[in-house]
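ASSEMBLY PREDICTION REQUEST
Request ID: AP-0331
Submitted by: J.K., bench scientist
Number of chains: two
Total residues: 743
Priority: normal
Notes: Please return the full assembly, not individual chains.
Input sequences:
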Amino acid sequence: MKKYTANPLILNVNEVEEFNTNDFYSSIINSLQNKGRIVSYFVYEIYDIKKIMAVIVFDDNGEFSVIQSKINNGLECMWEKIPQLFNFEREIAEQFPGTFINEDFQPLRFHKSFDGKNTSFIPGDINFYKIQSDEIHQVAVGPVHAGIIEPGHFRFQCHGEKVLYLEISLGYQHRGIEKALIGGPQKNTFYKIQAAAGDTTIGHTLAYLINLENLAGIKIDSNAMLKRMIALELERIANHVGDLGGLATDIGFLPTASYCGRIRGDFLNMTADICGNRFGRSLISFGGETVNALIFDKILKKIEMLKKNLYGAIEMLWQSPSAMSRLENTGILPRNIALKMGIVGTAARACNINNDIRKNIPFYHYQKYFIPVNTQSLNLNNDVLARGLIRWEETKNSINMISNMVNEITDSSGNQILTSLAAESVSISFTEGFRGEICHTAITDAKGNFLRYKIVDPSFHNWQALAYVMRNEDISDFPLCNKSFSLSYCGFDL
Amino acid sequence: MYRLIKERIYQKYRTVKFPISKDVLPEYFLGLPALKECSDNNCRKCIDVCPVDAIFKKNGNLYLDLGKCIFCGECANICESINFTKEYDLASTDRERLIISSGNRNISSHTRDSLLRKLFKKSLKLRQVSAGGCNACESDVNVLNTISWDLGRYGIQFVASPRHADGLLVTGPVSKNMEIAVKKTYEAVPDPKIVIACGACAIDGGPFFDSDEVLKGVDKILNVDLYIPGCPPHPATILLGLLQFLGKL
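STATUS: Completed
Returned structure:
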């Protein structure tokens, strides 16, 4: 298999390594044995031929492979041999029914197939896994939850307070983004991507624009790159601080909860200083960033002023033994399970799995500016606390990265106009959002329109980890475990 | 304990006075657009560039639908007739009033229903339902509960059960998969009840206005009493809309 290191990568559709089905599957199995991880896996149609494509990342070497195979008579499901493929295969079976010969999946998102068929479903109506016993009771939660949060359904099999099994059924947020992107880009495509997961606006928009600029053959200058990287790190800080506050809320440690709620707002307002919108809507634009460089100096000053508040609010959480004892040893995700499931982002790093895109397959200037978290020194125990500590370390590192980058910005850069995209090409981009790795794959047709645009949000990998860690935990630990993964519903449902 | 108290003193009292001045909003904040008369009937630049088809021309007049608008500012970048001010008072009780033109910007979130005002002015309990929302609207509604905005001081509270609520605040374009859940939640709220559509998606589908997986707005299935435009609306827009609706301002 060919290995690539370029992020983004551009290939002609004919250059993608193609195998017959057997070799395709054995290459995937080989890769996983060699510490590979499936990042994206999807079906697309080109000139009436259905093909399946896999993007596999090798974190340790900082490389990735792109392989594909023609689908002639239907494929065999592989998830029993390769657990990482489970949700990908469920997804494919729903988007392109008939791809697998032995497909017997529960619906993943409850939508009609890409060719408009298969409409006989009721959202949330699946055969939930059941444990048969007089002593077992079921707890059903959602889709509408008690807090201000997105919808999803959780089905617990409980023995008393203890959860034996949790099944998560999503799809309520499905807005048909991937299907709508076929034939694009249209004038509202950019805005759909911005709202793919609204709290990761920068992460997703960046992955999209990197692909678009890659396909258009446009290079942006160094200043624009730095500005985009700062926006991405600001988004990370705001969300991490919010999540740390959320952890404190869920254990009833109110001082950190209320201070973090406000400090998160202060970071969102810095993003608004750049573009007017607290979530970075329309912050980055095609071909370059015109925003004045002086704004970033002001933001740096604001961060410096906020630092003492931030440190005080969060350090007090770690210094309170009662809070710590609640976070320790709750929701343990064993490292080998995380590897098997292909878990990404903060949840993986809390298990000492090093899969940060900014380090392994860096884009823009991350090679120069990225400051990795020293996971060894943190003594992480794969639990809720570990996921909290990782966020705090990343927050501090992001602040340092921002201050290093701001000093390097010299001037504003101009925008460029999108004319046309390269025809019959594949472009793959990776970014690291606050939850973890985001992978976008664009495939264009002979006119340069999208044949397929595949979005993989980190939540797509990680929801199953939440279901796993709840086993043998008390049901009262669920909110805390849920917050510690901080997953996106709409990012999964798209 | 001593450390916690010391930190508490250091973190100070942080609740903001409301309404806030426009000047404290970010420099590039896009609020209520000001439209000039547009004499060139043939020019379609702003109409063509708008990603959500919020702009149209009729009888030589330029109109902008705040319910559809996602405040991206693309129109203002290419046309001098459109300017976004920093005015954050955007909510309206009437869908039609959200369509503004050069001569008409009479949006108003003051309810004309005196019974509703009497019943809910001192205490309004809301159940929030996210129906395809991207978590931006949800976040900016949630932010009202933080110490900065302190929603509770106005007697407004988000509650866990629809049975404890006086109404729903819906975000998102109402995905088809949430239609049943939204209706059921609404039915579970005791009468009299209100519905608030928060954000461009909940009003008219926002960027998903052309998707057939969503219903394009909560008023397609429920009567809406208050519309709060924005993508997402600024917390100040949401709070001002709520307070004016209740007749508190």
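REVIEWER COMMENTS: The CA atoms of residues 338 and 348 of chain A lie 7 Å apart.
SIGN-OFF: pending second reviewer
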